[in-house]
Amino acid sequence: GGGAPPPRSSAGVGAGGGAAPRGGRGVGGGGAHTPGSAPPPHGRVIWRDLDVPDVIALGHRFVDETPRRRAIASSAFETAWMDALAEAVAGGPVVFVSEASTLYFPEAANRQLYADLAARFPGAHVVFDTAAASFVGTQDTHDALRHCGARVTWTVDDPTALEAWGLRVEERFPLMRPPRWIRGEAPLLYRLLVPLLRLARPAMADSYHLNVAQLPG
Question: How far, in Å, CA of 198 to CA of 205, rounded?
């Protein structure tokens, strides 16, 4: 393949974090994943999987909840879960992780999502993916996306442009040009395939980014 993965749900975004001072807690999430696909909670880290109710119900058939890993059945764009989460983390450090979800929704919805998060979690970090406008035209021939009814609608050619929303973009890199520290941890097959994919689909090589940003506040 290459480029954006197919959507995991109608909206799956979560929060994650590490040990917090003064008894605070981090919270993490990422939608409907198998146990091995999310960072295993350890120490003082807690993890929350956020996804729409039918996907969470399906996940419960295969993955048991634990005190540190639980599910939140909600659209990412609703705010009730944010209010409950803000109370639960008690001011601890938080990082939100969104993969293959919000880029299938309009720009206005995404901008409001980040504004709602910033209002409740000022200074929190977000890890998310973006697709450039050049990627949109490739969806009908993409080996995975061509079989999906959903289509990427929110496009970002330059992730640093999101700083106009108040985000501070700390890191960004194309999926097919990962930084050295990721390449070193990746399986051998990935390290071998990525250069081949860049050659086979040069137009897509820089069209899909992974980003790390900090919310205002």
Answer: 5
> How does pLDDT run across 181-205, given as a tens digit for each residue?
888 888 888 888 888 888 887 777 7
Q: What is the DSSP letter of 126?
A: E
Task: Give the H or E element holding residue 118.
Answer: helix 107-120
Q: Residues near 215 by Cβ (< 8 Å), separated by ≥ 6?
A: 114, 117, 118, 121, 122, 123, 124, 125, 126, 166, 167
pTM confidence score: 0.81
Q: Which amino acid would we find at residue 164?
A: A
Long-range contacts of 55-61 (CB under 8 A, 24+ apart): 55/8, 55/9, 55/10, 55/12, 55/31, 56/32, 58/32, 59/32, 59/33
C-alpha span between 143 and 165 (Å, rounded): 33
170 Cβ contact partners less than 8 Å away, ≥ 6 residues apart: 125, 212, 213, 214
Place of tokens 């995991």: 8
Name the token pair of 52: 């729409």
Radius of gyration of the chain (CA): 17
The residue-averaged pLDDT of 141-156 equals 78
CB 84 within 8 A of CB 61: no
